[in-house]
Amino acid sequence: MSDQDTPRNMPETGAFMSVRKGGQNPDGETDGDTRKSRITPQKGIVSTKAAKTERASEPRVAVLEHTLWAQFLNASSGEGFVRAWLGLQCRNITGATAAVVVLGEPEVGPFTPVATWPGTDDVSNALMQAANEALSKKQSVVVGAAQGGSGGTLALPLMLEDKIYGTVAVTLGSNSMAAADALHQLRWGTGWLEALLRREQGAEDSALHARTLKALDFVAVALEQRRFSDACSALVTELASRLGCEQVALGFLKRKRIRVAALSHTSGFGSRMNLVRDIGLAMDEALDQEDVILYPAPEAWDYRITRMHKDLYHAHMAGSILTVPLRAEGEMFGALTMERPADEPFDQETVELCDVIASLIAPILNEQRKNDRWLITKIFDTIGRQIVALLGPRYFWRKLITIGLAAVIYLGATTEGTFTVSAPSRVEGSVQRTIVAPFDGYIQTETVRAGAQVGAEDVLATLNDRDLRLERLRWTTARNQRLIEFDRALATGERAEANIIRSQIDQADAQLALLDEQLSRTLIKAPFEGILVSGDLSQLVGTSVNRGQELFKIAPLDSFRVLLEVDETDVAQLDVGHEGQLRLSSSPDTPLFFTVQGITPVAMQRDGRNYFRVEAELDSAPDWVRPNMEGIGRVAIDERLIVSIWTRRLVNWAKMVAWRWSP
Length: 663
Fold this sequence. Notes:
Layout: E1 39-40, E2 44-45, H1 48-73, H2 78-92, E3 96-103, E4 112-117, H3 125-137, E5 141-143, E6 152-160, E7 163-172, H4 179-224, H5 228-243, E8 247-254, E9 257-263, H6 273-289, E10 293-295, H7 307-315, E11 320-328, E12 331-340, H8 348-371, H9 375-391, H10 396-414, E13 416-429, E14 433-436, E15 441-446, E16 453-454, E17 459-463, H11 466-492, H12 495-521, E18 523-525, E19 530-534, E20 544-545, E21 550-555, E22 560-567, E23 579-584, E24 587-606, E25 609-618, E26 630-641, H13 642-661
Antiparallel strand pairs: 1-2, 3-4, 3-7, 5-6, 6-7, 8-9, 8-12, 10-11, 11-12, 13-22, 13-26, 14-21, 15-17, 15-20, 16-19, 17-18, 19-21, 22-25, 23-24, 23-26, 24-25
Helix pairs in contact: 1-2, 2-4, 4-5, 4-8, 5-8, 6-7, 10-13, 11-12
């Protein structure tokens, strides 16, 4: 009994039904205990005739299941496998009334029904809505189930490696099993579909791997040749022999038309110009559509315009023509056209192999074609591409940058600006006094430190005067003693002795005067009102100092000068009287104006550069300016073109290099 003998509206049972114990007679009745009456909740005892009818349906159910299993295990296609699987699943789900399996490209789709149950192609809206919801959410969906969990529509997504391949949706009747149990049954059953999908994916991967290995052989052929023309000839000859083609042609785009560069098994086109022209037109047709063209095309082949291929087919008695475009760097630049005998047309596997070959060799041929040109051709081609990019519809930022650079160059060549010389600068007092130790001694006290403002005659520090006072006391005593002796000599009339004593008294007076002066100098005082530039004796109290040792530096607050360290390459531009601006690091927003007063004629060296010291006078100084502040000074020279100002250093460097290497 076949599946066709079973009515489609035959009521389905839940689990697989098996034949009961006891033998069957030719009339379909069973012997033994199967002849006993059965009890039902509605009517009590079932009649013997009803029992015979139910027993007669059991073999038909078993045959149907056997047929479904046979179709499932012996399916020759994926759709047959899925159709048989869906029938078996619906027989295992009690109360299933309709079901659909939707499959498509993983993640991207489109997803379409590939199998329905029962055997009708019509799918209800509720069933498809549940399937679409499971696809979008990537999780199982139950819609319209009763309070007890039966009935409604359920859908289960088919997931492999976190990618969705499709979904299974089933509609349950009112007396069906619970939706949760039905989902559980589907989850167990989807393992067969996962095995099918993995098997098909593995077959596709294996076929792609095999095609790639074959294509790599042709890549090696192209790479073995050093010249582009040799690579083209070797490639088309190898393609013709390996793929069983009568003729293979390779052409490249030149001035918006394809020019045939190589034909298999030939080195020239002299006597075959008509063929070469027709092949070029066929290649143009494929490039215009940016797709593979096969003529004559199979019935399932997508529609393409094949007018030029048809002309080539009839004009030169070709059997089967295949044209594959070559793409590199996002653009079509050539094509491969292959011809086979009519009794050996291109099949789908060969077309896919040729497509893989074209995708692998296209970048190599494009690079070889560019490298094999003359240098002048490369230069003009590069310039042309840049012009097209600038004038074409794309490359917005390149256009914007080019316009900006052009505007800058134009302004630099036509606009004048003030040429200035900049240099590191430092502010110093116009008068700077150094205060030193007046004699050898010891520091006794200190009252101020560097940075303090002091007035004239303010005490800055004191030196220890104990030794000086003791020395003065000794000389005072010696003078008094000499005065007594002088009076005695006058009284006795010893004039010579009196003169000697008188000279000793004068010596004592001189010593006392010196000691008084030294005692007055123990008070270190400021010579004028100003600010201490340097000096801190707080850590030196009690230590000795030598005569002439620097203790403080003081500068006035109302008079400053600027010292500029001008590089030797710019010093020739400066002259006395030039005016400039100074911006100090402590207040870069406030310009200070100065006038150049002098240029030191001796170069100095620091930080690996030679510079000259230029002195300038500040026109006015704010209250916050202090000596030794540093910044950048710029001296205005004259008005020049901006481009000459920008390129001055580069031009000077080029002149020096040219001078060094000139004969």
